[in-house]
Amino acid sequence: MSETKSTRAAAPRKSKSDNAKNKKIFVLDTSVILYDHSAIEHFQEHDVAIPITVLEELDTFKKGNEIKNFEAREFIRFIDKLSHEMMLQNWLPINGSDKGNFKVLMIQAPQVDAEKIFGEKKADHKILNSALQLQHEYPNRKVILVTKDINLRLKARALNLNAEDYETGKVQNVNNLYTGNDVLTDVAPEAIDQLYDHGFCESSAVLPEPPTDNHYFVLKSYKNSILAYYNPAQKKIERVDKLMAYGIKPRSAEQTFALHAILNPNIRLVTIQGMAGTGKTLLTLAGALEQRREYKQIYMARPIVPLSNKDIGYLPGDIKSKLNPYMEPLWDNLKFIQNQFPENTKENQKIKELVEQEKLMITPLAYIRGRSLSNIFFIVDEAQNLTPHEIKTIISRAGENTKIVFTGDIYQIDTPYLDTQSNGLSYLIDKAKDHPLYAHITLLKGERSELANLANELL
């Protein structure tokens, strides 16, 4: 956990008794464990407690192939190893001399009963009662409920209980998130002329310091302008030409940058962020098709956000039939590209052939763990609905000659326990910038239609 405001500030040295009194007790709920199974190790010297109700809930999540199932299993193993047959109702030292203690809270009836106040026997209310009882037992210490459930935090505060979000993995200043490109005015005309004539120029001719690796620029002088990027291998500013990919032509400078990153063989990891209709998925899929000879397969995936909290297992049919409703936007983009060519052309027929031979296919993210993806062009759409751990899991599967492109809109999140700061796409953009294998572009202008732009701008 990134420390809370009160734990961040440096404090003067105090006696052991003072330190014991000032140590906080953090009570974690199930949503935190499913987000990060190692959460209890991220609270510095403070103590951490888990209500028994959380262990009961984790038991229902331990079976399955999704990341949340892995997180549940890993946490259960961690607690088993930590306890070493000792009683979990007692405070146990967490691994590491600089960390606090851990215990499991048994269900007790506190003086303030959340179940009576809120009128339901829910797991959330049992967790609240555990934290309230702990607050009663340790009146001289600050007890804080940590949960990614906003409504549970509100209920806790209504009961005069401190409550916070889990901060580890959060991007602190999402409003200044890396955009991947800049517009530079008053550039020396000689630098732009050199880019036109030779395709590159020294970075010092444009900026006093070397820019971020694979950063894109619109360079303008009083005479003309040009698109360019910083090539970290050559350590030079290079011209970016407007290219087409499988019949799709970029309509803006940002789209040109995005397609350049998608087609650049030296960039193995790409993120494209932008609102609906900016062309993220279309450009990525077109770029993948353009490079189909360079890869064994093209994989397309997007997180499955079940409706009404129901798993896809509730849907009829085999796994392909279950996935299709969630993957329709990917098929729509593929159909749009295919329709750029008459039906009897080789380009149109090639797409059909790729799908039939499973050279281009939908793959569930749940089955990525444990695999090694070599010679694959991997497109992950709606990546803002992934956790940082899920993003890491996907990237860590990459083998030789694999390229991964994540697309999404960090302001359009469909999962209940993620936000603009804690989702995996924001985390990746913030952490991966300035790596020579990585490029990012933020698309700002909707290109779907004037009607779609009206919705994005006015409604």
From TrEMBL:
Residues spanning the membrane: none
Keywords: ATP-binding, Nucleotide-binding
Gene3D superfamilies: 5'-nuclease (3.40.50.1010), P-loop containing nucleotide triphosphate hydrolases (3.40.50.300)
Highest taxon of the lineage: Bacteria
Segments forming domain PIN: 24-154
GO molecular function annotation: ATP binding
GO cellular component, one term: cytosol
Pfam families: PhoH, PIN_4
Coiled coil: none
PANTHER family: PIN DOMAIN-CONTAINING PROTEIN, PROTEIN PHOH
Family: In the N-terminal section; belongs to the PINc/VapC protein family.
Protein name from the UniProt record: Phosphate starvation protein PhoH
Organism of origin: Adhaeribacter aerolatus
